[in-house]
């Protein structure tokens, strides 16, 4: 099992077009922090659902608490962690950001992963404040949140110009009543919110710059998939074209709690 997940399975968190760039950054961070601390990390995955991130982290020896409001997702997580042989390193708790203090019983964590959660909570700033309150000094936040400009571009390419205009100009970055997301963010506003919560941003990059726009039939081979991943990674961090990161479907921020 260990050898299989280190090689990477097609469609897994390590290799999926949707998650590979985020996973690479998270894995680099946890590897460094584990070396610094001399022990496995205590990780909180807020809104972690069925364990797409929690299970591979637990497979690497870290202890992960998943807090999610959905009992169905947590039941799936329990089955998935048992099948992966890491159930003893994953704790599944039903709740949300408002209940973190009680759920964790005051025990600080080394890393909070908040991926795809700020878009749907009632108060993003309050959620980040709750997250900050449970992070140990020197601990980190890994935040992934949807960006506005990606929705604008997607609506334009779909020929929905009125919807594109709405996404560009609305306060919440939504393209209309049928938009499945309650809100999207701009990079500068999201960074300011993270800073206001008491974190220091250490790294920020756009993810899924092109992959959501490419028909799946054009990424059918392993070589095509790897080439697209490499293009996305280099485009998001290119010294002259870093602005392309703002076109990513999401922004990934790594920030420390000093």
TrEMBL record:
<dbReference type="Pfam" id="PF13489">
    <property type="entry name" value="Methyltransf_23"/>
</dbReference>
<keyword id="KW-0949">S-adenosyl-L-methionine</keyword>
<protein>
    <submittedName>
        <fullName>Ubiquinone/menaquinone biosynthesis C-methylase UbiE</fullName>
    </submittedName>
</protein>
<keyword id="KW-0489">Methyltransferase</keyword>
<keyword id="KW-0830">Ubiquinone</keyword>
<dbReference type="GO" id="GO:0032259">
    <property type="term" value="P:methylation"/>
</dbReference>
<dbReference type="GO" id="GO:0008168">
    <property type="term" value="F:methyltransferase activity"/>
</dbReference>
<dbReference type="InterPro" id="IPR029063">
    <property type="entry name" value="SAM-dependent_MTases_sf"/>
</dbReference>
<keyword id="KW-0808">Transferase</keyword>
């Amino acid at each position: 099992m260990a050898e299989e997940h280190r090689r990477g399975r097609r469609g897994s968190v390590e290799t999926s077009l949707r998650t590979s760039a985020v996973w690479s950054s998270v894995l680099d961070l946890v590897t460094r922090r584990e070396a610094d601390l001399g022990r496995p990390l205590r990780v909180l995955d807020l809104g972690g659902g069925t364990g797409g991130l929690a299970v591979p982290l637990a497979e690497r020896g870290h202890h992960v608490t998943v807090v999610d409001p959905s009992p169905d997702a947590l039941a799936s997580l329990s089955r998935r962690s048992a099948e992966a042989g890491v159930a003893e390193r994953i704790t599944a708790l039903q709740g949300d950001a408002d209940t973190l203090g009680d759920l964790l019983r005051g025990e600080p964590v080394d890393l909070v992963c908040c991926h795809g959660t700020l878009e749907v909570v009632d108060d993003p700033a309050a959620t980040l404040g709750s997250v900050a309150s449970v992070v140990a000094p020197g601990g980190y936040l890994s935040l992934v949140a949807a960006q506005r400009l990606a929705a604008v571009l997607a609506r334009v390419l779909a020929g929905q110009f009125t919807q594109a205009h709405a996404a560009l100009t609305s306060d919440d970055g939504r393209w209309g009543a049928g938009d499945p997301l309650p809100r999207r963010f701009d990079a500068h506003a999201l960074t300011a919110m993270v800073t206001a919560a008491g974190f220091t941003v250490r790294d920020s990059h756009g993810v899924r710059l092109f992959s959501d726009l490419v028909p799946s039939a054009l990424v059918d081979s392993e070589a095509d998939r790897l080439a697209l991943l490499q293009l996305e990674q280099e485009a998001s961090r290119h010294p002259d074209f870093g602005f392309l990161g703002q076109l990513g479907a999401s922004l990934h921020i790594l920030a420390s709690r000093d």
